[in-house]
Amino acid sequence: MGIPCHRATFLTNMIKVYLLHGAGAGHQSDFLQNFKQRFEDEVGLQVNPVTLDYMVQIETTGKMRPPPRIPKLVEEVQQKIDPETPIVLIGKSMGCRIIAELCASHNVQACIALGFPFYPAKKTDKHRLGHFEQTGGVPYYILQGTRDSLGNHEWVTEQNLPENVHVNWIEGADHDFRVLKRYNLSEQEVMQNLIAHCAVILHDYDIRR
Predict the structure, then answer these.
(1) Is residue 153, in this structure, part of any structural domain at all?
(2) Which domain holds residue 31?
(3) Is the full-model pTM beyond 0.90?
(4) Strands across the sheet with 16-20, in order?
(5) Could you give the CA distance from residue 137 to residue 119 in angstroms, rounded to a whole number?
(6) Taken in order 20, 25, 29, 31, is the CA torsion positive or negative?
(7) Do the domain assignments include residue 121?
């Protein structure tokens, strides 16, 4: 999309960045490993992955299991991160819901959501817009594929989102940021697009400080 990828100018001695995984794949997934490496290389900030306890069990035993309910996960993460330290939170899918809730208890400076699950698949009546009420005005940026089955372009653009919630669209991408062949974009090009958005978001944020 022609977005320049500038290194952010955050005060790295003050700001910590945390990354929360989704429901079915932890930080060992190719996507999150690639994202973490590219983010650190190009944005210039260290990423601290947060692995939830149920995911540790999955990775240890090799047996899939559903995650606990969101309130329990939020409580778990609250205990893992110091509430006073200025932080930037990045979430993938389910992790996007958790980081929104943490805005009410922690010193969150900005959030970046990689594929916000606005609703369960094909169940728009069970939307999850209520999470945004907990952000309390914290800048909350969503990077969303136009083909995301958990929040597509048509549905999301019809919603009245809070002023602090900003959606940036990745053309042709689904919930896992995979694109159809007709878009002629490789996985690395899509990842570069995501990282470029992150760099611009954090760079612009720092300018406003």
Answers:
(1) yes
(2) 16-208
(3) yes
(4) 47-50, 16-20, 87-92, 108-114, 140-145, 165-170
(5) 22
(6) negative
(7) yes
